[in-house]
Structures are given as C-alpha cells and as structure tokens.
Amino acid sequence: MKLKSIQIAGFKSFADKTIINFQKGLTGIVGPNGSGKSNVIEAVRWALGEQSAKSLRGKKMKDVIFSGSKYRHPLNRAEVSLIFDNSTHFLDSDYSEVKITRTYYRNGESIYSINDKECLLRDINNLFMDTGLGEGSLSIISQGNVDDILDDDVEKRRSIIETAAGVYRYKKQKNESKKKLEETQFNLDRISDITSEIK
Ligand code: ATP
C-alpha cells in the first residue's frame, strides 16, 4: 500500500483544489513558516477520520474549513481525498486503487466515501485497522506527540505497543464478541425465567 496522492480543497490554508502526487524519492515537504506543511499532514489525518478538532489545532471541527483571507471569502466546504496504490491488495478491497474522501460542511454535515461510494466512518476505520494508518495510528506523529507518548501511563503505553504490533484489531473483536455473549446470556436467562413461570 502506498499513498499516491492527496487532493485538498477548502481545507485550512488550501482554498483552491490542490493535488500533491507523492512520487518515488519524495522524503519531505519544505517551505517557509506558516506555508501549510503541517496542514498537509493534518489533511491526511483528517481524511482518515480524525475526530478531535483539538488535535488538528482547532476548537471546533468547522475550523478545518478555509476561513477566508484578505482577498478571499471563507468557504463552506472542506474536502480531502487520499488515493492509495492497492495493487498488492494490502487493503482489504478489490480495487487496485483505493480513494477515500471526507467532506465537511459548515452546517456540520459530514460525508465519507470509499472509491466515490458513500460510506460510514466505521467502514474507513475498518479498512485501515492494523494497517499502520488507521484510528490512533502511529505512522503520523505530530509535533509534541513524542513527549506525550513518553509521559503516558503504563496502560496507555501498552495500548500504543499493541496498536503497533497489530493486536488491537483482535482485542476489539474479542471485546465485541464478549459483549454479544453477555447479551445472549441475558436473553437466555430471561427465557428461562419466562418458561419457569409458564410451567
Ligand atoms: P511551520 O513551519 O511554522 O510549522 P507550516 O508550514 O507547518 O508552518 P501550517 O501550520 O501548516 O504551516 O499552516 C499554518 C497556516 O495555515 C497559517 O497561516 C494559518 O492562518 C493557516 N490556516 C489554518 N487554518 C486555516 C483556515 N481554517 N483557513 C485559512 N487558513 C488557515
């Protein structure tokens, strides 16, 4: 799996549609202070489903939408697409190219899609789970995050290691199964109560 390109429109400082192709050999993005380097990385995290406005350096989610400048009006919509080369089918998808898109409107409406087909955030989380790029991924370490990781308590650090080792998916599935078992047991107990009442 390789991130081939990113399309950004109306996201933070990127008012106009901007396409960045990540060609072979690209190792970094350089530019003057405030030119939008971090915004590119945040666009990646945001498209992958980041829900915390604070971790995107904003107060509310609508802060990701271009807020206007001296020469331009604010926009009403932010949209970011990530296009992945999936020719090895590393991502669990039949497509050899996977495009995920997140669109957000100032009125709070939010749309996610995979290969231009509308989906739920959960579908995107599932697609990237344990690939190294999913929810809570360690592939992207923001400025200041290193200190946070070192300062975290033992449990939190353990969950970081579990995520990196790829066992998080199984832990999540185990907990879901446990919950279903408990619900089933509850239903069984209820049936047992009812049958004994009928007898
Ligand atoms: P540095 O090298 O200092 O870390 P950088 O190149 O990483 O800077 P960013 O932090 O990505 O720059 O971009 C900051 C710029 O993005 C600021 O000029 C800020 O005004 C602009 N910006 C952030 N959010 C928005 C928004 N919603 N609308 C318009 N511009 C925005």
Explained architecture:
It is a single chain. This protein has 199 residues and is an alpha+beta fold. 35% of the residues lie in helices and 19% in strands. A six-stranded antiparallel sheet has the order 2-1-3-4-5-6. The longest helix has 31 residues, at 168-198. Adenosine-5'-triphosphate is lined by residues 12-13, 31, 33-39, 63, 65-67.
Question: How would the blueprint of this fold be written?
Answer:
Layout: E1 2-9, E2 18-21, H1 37-47, E3 77-85, E4 97-105, E5 110-114, E6 117-119, H2 121-128, H3 145-151, H4 154-165, H5 168-198
Antiparallel strand pairs: 1-2, 1-3, 3-4, 4-5, 5-6
| Strand coverage percent | 15-25%
Overall geometry? elongated
Spatial extent as radius of gyration: 21 Å
Average pLDDT works out at 91
Q: Stretches where pLDDT falls below 50 for ≥5 residues?
A: none
Number of strands: 6
Strand arrangement within the widest β-sheet reads 2-1-3-4-5-6
Ligand types: adenosine-5'-triphosphate
Indicate the percent of residues in helices.
Answer: 25-40%
N-to-C series of helices and strands: EEHEEEEHHHH
Count of separate DSSP helical elements: 5
Describe the biggest sheet? 6 strands, antiparallel
First and last CA, distance? 61 Å
What oligomeric assembly is this protein in? single chain
Which structural class matches the secondary elements?
A: alpha+beta
